[in-house]
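Journal club prep — side note

Before the paper discussion, L.F. wants everyone to see what a predicted structure for a comparable chain looks like in token form. Sequence:
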Amino acid sequence: MLTIFVLALAGLGAGALNAIAGGGTFLTFPALVWAGVPPIMANATATFAALPGYVGSAWAYRGDIERGGKPPLAHLVGAAVVGGLAGAGLLLVTPEELFSGVVPWLLLIATAAFALGPAFVRRLAESGRTMSDPAALGLVFAVSVYGGYFNGGLGIMLLAAFGIIGMTNLHRMNGLKNLMSVVLSVVSVATYTVAGLIDWGNLLVVGLSCALGGYLGAVLARRVQNTALLRLLIIAIGLIMTALFFLRAAG
């Protein structure tokens, strides 16, 4: 019962965080590892569990997503599909021990990108430079490879990428982030399922709670004007989880 409670609570919080700004896998991935799921299987299961929440959040943001902009939505989705397949394929050939050693660094990269992204975007805007569509799609492809390989911090990485591209409307950025996360997760999950990497029992608990948290979080996020406190909270969670996984890898 304790395991079910912890996984359900982690899923609810993760769904809400993913909808608002990303970082939900910082909760579900370690919760699954704590429950005894091997790291690679925990990553695959956490990716699958986040999918219903992404769908619910993307639906809540559908009006913001449809506002248009550059690069075209179809091109963004295409880059996500190809990148997601590449990342998921890379995970399948990664030994368990190597993946466990890489996880803390991936968490650190995701947290740093989220923390430093706004300052980088401001400097980019002050310089008057704009990113061309091919460069923007290349950046989205690179983030999608990361997302296909490791779901932790995917939303954070996508938001940072959209900011670097030059997007400024936070609601549209969140909507696109959730839509792209749906696309990436579907591609990755299909690959993981064929490879037998999904823990179906724990998936049911985490997935249902993620779906509920995702919808509630999206509804709340569209009413939030000042996200500074939320940003600090996500950075703190990312740093704590990074430290814990570095300690785990060292032990």
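L.F.'s comment for the group: The chain has a mean pLDDT of 81. Keep this in mind when we get to the figures.
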